[in-house]
Structures are given as structure tokens and as C-alpha cells.
Design goal:
With 104 residues, this protein is mainly beta. The chain contains no helices and eleven strands. The chain has two domains: 1-72, SH3 type barrels, CATH 2.30.30; 80-104, no CATH class. The protein has strands at residues 9-12, 21-28, 33-36, 41-46, 56-61, 64-65, 69-72, 79-80, 82-86, 92-96, 102-103. The strands form three sheets. A six-stranded antiparallel sheet has the order 6-3-2-1-7-8, with no helix packed on it. Strands 9-10-11 form a three-stranded antiparallel sheet, with no helix packed on it.
Length: 104
């Protein structure tokens, strides 16, 4: 189970887009990777199809390994580690390690 979820705001900690922030668009469980909005853009050659009648070279977001992103803390504006703790009604919540900000 991955601890980063869709619509989380993350900061990229390694690679060509190090330091960029963005929203998680998709989580790929089988690859342990996430796709971040407007980050890790690659060029992809596409054949013509029903949606793209001309085909050609298209810019697309590529997956980033989960170990290369961190949750963005709203208080500090930096990447943060987090811990799982129980909230009201004994449900699991994610809490920033340093600032105590609750994610969710």
C-alpha cells in the first residue's frame, strides 16, 4: 500500500524536475510510482487514432518512483515525512512529522 494518494500535493526530491511541486494525478500501485501534474514531461510518438487524427510527437507526463516524491507541508512549504496515527473514531490519518499538519 502506498501512502501517497491521488490529489495530494507533492514535491519532487530527485531527478530532472527536482524541486518542482504538483498535484498527484494518478497512483500506479504495480510500479510503486505516481504521475505528477506538469512534471517529468517526456516526448511520445503517437500514431493517428480517433482522438488524435494527426498523430505526431506529444508531450506527456511520465511516472516518477514513489521514493522520489514527498508530501508538501502546507505550514512550512517544504517536503515532509509523515506518520500514521489514529484520529477520531479510531480512523487512520496522516500527520506531518515536524509540524503536526494533518493531511486529508
Amino acid at each position: 500500500m502506498l501512502r501517497i494518494r491521488k490529489n495530494d500535493t507533492v514535491i519532487i526530491t530527485a531527478g530532472k524536475d527536482k524541486g518542482k511541486t504538483g498535484k498527484v494525478v494518478r497512483v500506479l500501485l504495480e510500479k510503486n510510482a505516481v504521475i505528477v501534474e506538469q512534471a517529468n514531461i517526456v516526448k511520445k510518438h503517437e500514431k493517428p487514432n480517433q482522438q488524435n487524427r494527426t498523430g505526431g510527437i506529444v508531450d506527456r507526463e511520465a511516472p516518477i518512483h514513489i521514493s522520489n516524491v514527498m508530501l508538501l507541508d502546507g505550514k512550512t512549504g517544504k517536503g515532509t515525512r509523515f506518520k500514521i496515527s489514529s484520529g477520531k473514531d479510531n480512523d487512520k490519518i496522516r500527520v506531518a512529522a515536524k509540524s503536526g499538519t494533518v493531511f486529508d
